[in-house]
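Dear colleagues,

For the upcoming journal club I promised to circulate an example of a predicted protein-ligand complex. I picked one with magnesium ion because it came up in last month's discussion. The inputs are reproduced below in full, followed by the predicted structure.
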Amino acid sequence: MTQPALETRDLTIRFGGHVAVDSVSCAFHPGTLTAIVGPNGAGKTTYFNLISGQLRASAGRVFVYGDDVTALPAPGRTRRGLGRAFQLTNLFPNLTVLENVRLAIQARRGLGLNLWSVWSSHRELIGEAEAVLERIALTAKRDALASSLPHGDQRKLEVGILLAIEPEVFMFDEPTAGMSVDEVPVILDLIREIKRDRSKTILLVEHKMDVVRELSDRIIVLHNGRLAADGPPAEVIASPVVQQAYLGIEPAEVSR
Ligand SMILES: Nc1ncnc2c1ncn2[C@@H]1O[C@H](COP(=O)(O)OP(=O)(O)OP(=O)(O)O)[C@@H](O)[C@H]1O
Ligand SMILES: [Mg+2]
């Protein structure tokens, strides 16, 4: 077995008396896509927040390629290879689509605001950013302000920014939520494409079970902040307990 790209040990957060993520221990390996499912309020997004460093754990640890990153704030974890699409919060609304992606590439390369290096590699950055726009099918809108985009396009741009950062671990939290039916395939194709790179690790929070069934190599179920099931998709989906209690699916729906 390869070394896990990401591991959480007894990861826990309490909000007042409420334990939103309760001692979750789980390892995620390169070349796998793990779907994280569970009812609303189960703790899925909070688990992501603890992994990416948006929230500080009450207890437990997070490891990236074996290194303990628990004490690192979010940007430090991004530099270690954790990449997360934030629902719209990391878009620069007053910059164009192209500039948003270019800045992400620039940040990844550590060019910062060194004007000389930015200038000398400007054309190369633009070329790279254009390639990302191609992948997210936003080339036609390259000069539009991010704030002017319809919701679905903003979500695609978020994924573009994530691609530009080139993380080792991709974390998607309901990436197609609020998208129109014709936009969904663009995102799913991108996830499939990332999956083909066997060195990458993907975590996907998703409510749509057809998507989960198709894309995942493994499903974990969170319920009341606890890891309630973990296994191959067919096995987890078929387990009656999971269906009724955790997925809210009637047994009849499962047999397709
Ligand atoms: N910052 C916070 N302060 C207090 N409680 C919080 C905070 N963030 C999350 N919670 C609580 O933690 C629990 C888990 O919420 P979370 O958003 O992680 O669920 P989820 O599984 O992502 O649900 P959904 O499927 O609806 O997105 C909920 O009860 C929520 O109210
Ligand atoms: Mg959520």
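Two points we might discuss: The chain has a mean pLDDT of 89. The chain has eleven helices and ten strands.

See you all on Thursday,
B. R.
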